[in-house]
Write a structure and sequence with these properties.
mainly alpha, Four Helix Bundle (Hemerythrin (Met), subunit A), 2 strands, two-stranded antiparallel ribbon, 7 helices
Length: 174
Amino acid sequence: MKLNWLPSMCTLANLGLGSLSLYFTIQERYSLALLMILLAAICDVLDGLLARILQCTSEFGKQLDSLADIISFGLAPTFLILLYRLEDAHWIGPAVSVLFLICGALRLARFNLSAPSKGFVGMPITAAGVILSMISLLDERMKPGLVIVLMAILSVMMVSRIPFPSLKKSFNRK
């Protein structure tokens, strides 16, 4: 039985969960919004893992994954942080949020054009979005200024040339 459709279903689940995160953010149900981002991250890991296990990686899957990731780990965390933590940050909150989203898109575009490798160049948007969401939501004492600095640092790390390890490397060894 062919299961080539399974990785794409995980990617679509990632996209759906990211969309639900936006919905819950708008409803001011921030904990549920965070949970949707975390579940989307699990789906994001699973889609690539399943594609490699089933040997059905494709250019279509790579592009679909990036589209889902910009929603689940770019747009959803940005809205979550803007509406929950930076609503009173005047112009700087939206400006840094847009920077985060732009850097995430640039990171995804660069990844899609790069040759396959065993690691990542620049922090993956999944990691940046999850870190931003978790730290900002789970630490209530974090001041808006610190959230803005964190967003700026994560933005720079996504477009940097810093190497980051990949789960693919350890999976390929097994």
